[in-house]
Design a protein that fits this description.
The structure holds two protein chains of two kinds. In chain A, β5 and β6 form a beta hairpin. A five-stranded mixed β-barrel of chain A has the order 2-3-4-6-5. In chain A, α2 packs across α3. The longest helix of chain A is centred in the first third of the chain and has 24 residues. By secondary structure, chain A is an alpha/beta fold. Chain A is built from three helices and six strands. The N and C termini of chain A lie far apart (65 Å). Helices cover 17% and strands 49% of the residues of chain B. Chain B has an eight-stranded antiparallel barrel with strand order 1-2-3-4-5-6-7-8. The chains are: A alpha/beta, B alpha+beta.
């Protein structure tokens, strides 16, 4: 009887490990629509933080969910994903939001010049003489009702 | 005296405008990589490539953040950033080079042209000379620059853990496609 329990326990442990391994292997990136942002700010503020000190801003914002509001300066709908750039149209710098196509209904009516609020995973920022300062948000979702 | 100042100002403005018109750029260029391997195929995409092309000189520059590559599987993405390219330590990859046959490309005329590209590619903190060919498509004042080429992970000191060494390919196919617009 005791031996049966031990065999049953071993089988359960193997199944549990197998299930964990399988689900971990097939895990997809987290949906950010309901995820609480670590920071909520204006696009200009976020750009300014990276312009002032890129290394320090990267430490603070990279791998964090950020909610950002601003004017749409450009919209790239060529292929998937759609990329919405927020910032001052007169400046090179921008927040580039690569959109999550599984929430396309939230952003398909957004147009250049609109004021919108987007939320995405910050993958970092860079400042270069040629391109200005760019902050990248991946898997972004639109919170503005557009 | 005032006339001279005005002429100088006009010339400076004209020079600036000409320079800007020679440059085409994007910040939402696409880059994808693909590796076929016995264990599993690895592919990722990134549509936030910053690229600029100076049509006058043929100078070409690309820049991309490594963490912006998106994989279908989260675990693969984490392994890519932590174990392979070490994105926290080397956050950016870039290419600086030029189109060596720039004179053969007529940017004023719509068409498809073969571009020979030569320059320095930096990945994982390692810079190497690369030479490849690409296509420049000119249409209605816009430029589509694309190229497909292979790199070896070992060239960029990206080591594959011993346990999966025989199952992951050392050769990675990279495809870049940038739709460039005039820099205003």
């Amino acid at each position: 009887m005791k031996r049966t329990y031990i065999i049953l326990l071993v089988v359960l442990v193997i199944v549990a490990i197998g299930w964990y391994g399988y689900s971990e292997y097939n895990r997809t990136n987290e949906d950010l629509l309901k995820k609480k942002p670590a920071y909520s700010m204006q696009a200009a503020e976020l750009i300014a933080a990276f312009e002032k000190d890129t290394a320090s801003a990267n430490r603070k914002f990279t791998d964090k969910v950020i909610q950002v509001s601003g004017t749409v300066k450009s919209l790239d709908t060529n292929g998937n994903p759609v990329v919405i750039a927020l910032g001052d149209p007169g400046q090179m710098s921008s927040v580039q939001c690569s959109m999550d196509s599984s929430h396309a209904e939230g952003y398909r009516k957004i147009r250049e010049g609109d004021h919108v609020t987007l939320k995405g995973m910050c993958t970092g920022g860079k400042t270069e003489e040629m391109f200005g300062t760019d902050v990248i948000l991946n898997r972004s979702v639109a919170l503005t009702d557009k | 005296m005032i006339n001279k100042v005005m002429i100088a100002a006009v010339l400076i403005c004209a020079a600036t405008v000409t320079q800007a018109q020679d440059r085409y750029f994007t910040k939402s260029g696409r880059i994808e990589f693909f590796s076929k391997a016995p264990m599993e195929d690895i592919e990722a995409r990134n549509k936030t490539v910053a690229a600029v092309l100076d049509t006058k000189s043929g100078a070409l520059q690309f820049s991309v953040l490594m963490k912006s590559f998106e994989f279908e599987k989260a675990l693969m993405q984490e392994h890519f950033n932590e174990n392979y390219v070490e994105s926290n330590k080397f956050p950016k990859a870039e290419f600086k080079g030029s189109i060596t046959n720039n004179g053969d490309i007529n940017y004023a005329k719509d068409g498809s042209y073969t571009a020979k590209v030569k320059g320095k590619l930096t990945i994982h903190g390692v810079t190497r000379d690369v030479e490849t060919t690409g296509t420049i498509k000119v249409a209605s004042g816009k430029i589509d620059a694309s190229s497909v080429f292979n790199i070896l992970l070992s060239d960029y000191n990206i080591s594959i853990p011993a346990i999966v060494k025989d199952k992951i390919s050392n050769s990675i196919k990279i495809a870049v496609d940038c739709k460039l617009e005039p820099l205003k």
